[in-house]
Amino acid sequence: MNIIYFLIGCSVLLALIFLGAFFWAQRSGQNDDLYTPGMRILLDDEKKPEDKK
Amino acid sequence: MPEIQTIVKTSCYHCGDECLSTEYRADHKQFCCQGCQRVYTILSGAGLSSYYQYNDHPGTTRTRTDKRFDFLSDPAILAELLDYSDDRLSIITLYIPQIHCSSCLWLLEHLHRFNPAIHYSRVDFLKKQLIIRFDPQQISLQEVVELLNDIGYEPLISLQDVIKKQNKSGKSNLVQRIAVAGFCFGNVMLLSFPEYFGLSGYEQTFRHFFGYLNIGFSLPVVFFSGRGYFTSAWHNLKNKVLNIDFPLALGIAVLFIRTVVEILTHSGAGFADTLCGLVFFLLIGKFVQQKTYHHISFERDYRSFFPVAVQVVVEGREKPVALSELKTGHRMVIRHNEIIPADAILLKGEALIDFSFVTGEAIPVTKTLGEIIYAGGRQTGEAIEMEVIKPVSQSYLTQLWNNEAFTRKQDNRMLTFNEKVSKYFTVVLIAIAVGAFLAWLPFSLHKGFDALTAVLIVACPCALALSTPFTMSAALSIFDRNIFYLKNTAVVEQLARVDTLVMDKTGTITTGTGKHIELGADLNANERQLIFSACANSIHPLSRMICKYLGNLEKLPVIKYQEVAGKGIMATVDGHSLLIGSGSLVFGDEPEGQLLTRVHLQCDGRYLGYFGFFHEYRSGMDQIAALSPAYQLYLLSGDQDHERSEMLRFFRDDSHLFFGQTPQQKLDKVVALQQQGLKVMMFGDGLNDSGALKQSDLGVAVTDNVNNFSPGSDAILDGRAFDKLPAFLRFSKDTVTIIHISFLISLTYNVIGLSYAVTGRLSPLVAAVLMPLSTVTIISFTTLATHFTAKRRKLL
């Protein structure tokens, strides 16, 4: 059953990595604007000038 | 038989407004004005016509295009506006109120197509902000702003923006604290389950291992996530106030200490999961309460109405000068539609000042040379030159802001229910805890401490602390849906306690334009043209409305023109003599109707008919009038009393009507009402009401467009929802009832928990079940009940 020590260590480590990732996302402002990206994705890419005939 | 004119209504391709003439066209598309046409030409020239594909008529009307951005070349102003700047890169955040659809987003993020020196542009849609990075060596900020202006997105650069930037506070790290608490809560739950399900003999070593881990996870919860409760409780204790944070902090501390002691002495499993859950739920409640409207500002004052800089004549040349640099003796130039920022003497030009910002009076005032003009007026017509006699900070208008109403702290207007209750709650809680301790003391000291801590843990007012935020935030979102925006959750409770409604007139209970026009005559095309030509010469608001009503017709030569003040126009146009004006001008007597202002028309001695002007009141005034006598209604208007008789219909009591009020008098009236013990809710729309709005117990700014400037207030009401006001008032009362009921529910849980706790035998499992259960009950009850009452009040 000593494997439990190892497994819990792993799970806590993994969870800490996720928490760190969330902190990083928060700091770098990824969650500041949750509305605009949803609109941006609906806009089509520009057609290149060659395509226009 | 009069010639019948068929006018095909076409809407502007750019902005969707009705086209009054066929003058403006490009690529077979109709435009309402030159501004819109120009934007279209620029966009199609740059190959950006997809702008028009995402939405129909994405633009905003461009009829007013006379802005100057010369001040953006001043390095001192520039330095204040830019977020970042070096030789090769400048970053600026601009507020653009016109942002409203995906086309706006698309166009503004393709600015580099106009000029490659703009590296990057990003829109924050809800905040209506645009972040631009550009190369200052190739394009100046002035050029960037002018480009934006040309394509129809004029950024709003005001004095308050500059100031706001300086005192931008550090962002709250509430989300991080919730994340940490949630993370620890999840892990602690996992590690506590084995304890609840029972561990067999040979697994005892795990028990200690899990215990130590639990302590480890509790540390960040208490010292990082929950720190705010300790500092707040300590701060309040120092000020001799018992608020809800005190029992919460006490609960957290006791939970933590008892957990650590039990685990380290191997005497029990501790309450780590209850502790983490408590802090997590409390923080969620805090988060829910912090609703922010990014696109609305409740804190506006005169500075946001003023420009950043003004043109000043120095040695015969015009130079932009920042308002803070504006000194007595400066000679400033004010153009059409610009605001006079400081008290000044008129030196040159014909001044026709619209003081509607300051006084609420909509009719512009003519000023003669040498007269003092107070700050806040908006020049209409030609450019004028004036000499500054007082700096901006000491002008007549800004003096209002020196009133104590503006320096007073805003938060402590009325005690909320929560604040009132938590005082008694804390005292009773401590009494029970000490009582239990003393009762057990004769038997065993250990048992006594057990009981003491158990009481503090179980009675920790988690559900109580959550009931208000969850009810209020649910209520706030109901108001939000009905386009009534409250500054924060405490405003709901203030709304419930109001018993006096004070209204401003112009713009508040009348709509923005104020009047509605009706033609009481049968005019042929020629007559229309004659009247248009005569009225086009006049700047009187009624003449302008007639011109607007008739549309953009061709002007005929006016041979003779005379305007009689207060009466009307006498003119000879194209060989016809016209009389346009009041009954006394046209008939020589005055049979004036009460509800209708009439402008009579006479051509070559023949009476043609009249234009009728209705005052257009917001719909719902009758329902509001019906609120009396439960609510007292007052009117405070800056206008003269020519509408007194109509107002009497709504306000009933003549002594409740006040006309010709200056901003200061409005504020004083509100103070007088408050001294009678009334809770005053003030409705206003302009700068002239801002003193009264600030002073009142609940200031509501009424506006037709929430993105426009409205004075600082507690709430912003969209004019379209004005008729729902009685429902809002009733709903706010319901909300308070819901809070009372949920308080009773949480109290019931506390009593159940306490009956366990006083015996000293509180098992961690009971605590771990009771706390989340009560929380869930409260959250679901408040949310459901709020939605149910909203439905009943027809707000949903």
Structural features, described:
- Chain A has 53 residues and is mainly α.
- Chain A has two helices and no strands.
- The longest helix of chain A has 25 residues.
- With 796 residues, chain B is an alpha+beta fold.
- Chain B folds into six domains: 45 residues, no CATH class; 97 residues, Alpha-Beta Plaits, CATH 3.30.70; 120 residues; 101 residues, Calcium-transporting ATPase, cytoplasmic transduction domain A (Distorted Sandwich), CATH 2.70.150; 156 residues, HAD superfamily/HAD-like (Rossmann fold, 3-Layer(aba) Sandwich); 104 residues, 3-Layer(aba) Sandwich (Calcium-transporting ATPase, cytoplasmic domain N), CATH 3.40.1110.10.
- In chain B, strands 18-30-29-28-19-26-27 form a seven-stranded mixed sheet. Chain B has a six-stranded antiparallel sheet with strand order 10-9-11-17-12-15, with no helix packed on it. In chain B, strands 20-25-24-23-22-21 form a six-stranded antiparallel sheet.
- The longest helix of chain B is centred in the last third of the chain and has 33 residues.
- Classes of the chains: A mainly alpha (53), B alpha+beta (796).
- Chains A and B meet through α1 and α2 of A and α4, α7 and α8 of B.
Provide a concise account of the structure shown.
The complex is a heterodimer of chains A (53) and B (796). Chain A has 53 residues and is mainly α.
Strand-helix topology:
The complex is a heterodimer of chains A (53) and B (796).
Chain A: H1 3-27, H2 36-40
Chain B: E1 10-11, E2 18-19, E3 25-26, E4 29-30, H1 34-45, H2 51-54, H3 75-81, E5 84-85, E6 90-95, H4 102-108, E7 118-124, E8 129-134, H5 141-150, H6 159-166, H7 174-197, H8 204-225, H9 227-238, H10 245-264, H11 272-289, H12 302-305, E9 309-314, E10 317-322, E11 331-334, E12 344-348, E13 351-354, H13 356-359, E14 365-367, E15 372-373, E16 378-379, E17 384-388, H14 396-399, H15 404-407, H16 417-440, H17 445-458, H18 462-481, E18 484-486, H19 490-497, E19 500-503, E20 510-521, H20 525-535, H21 541-550, E21 558-564, E22 568-573, E23 576-581, H22 583-586, E24 596-603, E25 606-617, H23 621-625, E26 632-636, H24 644-651, E27 657-658, H25 663-675, E28 680-684, H26 690-695, E29 698-703, E30 715-718, H27 725-757, H28 764-792
Parallel strand pairs in B: 19-26, 19-28, 26-27, 28-29, 29-30
Antiparallel strand pairs in B: 1-2, 3-4, 5-6, 6-8, 7-8, 9-10, 9-11, 11-17, 12-15, 12-17, 13-14, 13-16, 18-30, 20-25, 21-22, 22-23, 23-24, 24-25
Helix pairs in contact in B: 7-8, 7-11, 8-10, 8-11, 9-10, 10-11, 10-17, 11-18, 11-28, 16-17, 17-27, 18-27, 18-28, 19-27, 20-21, 27-28
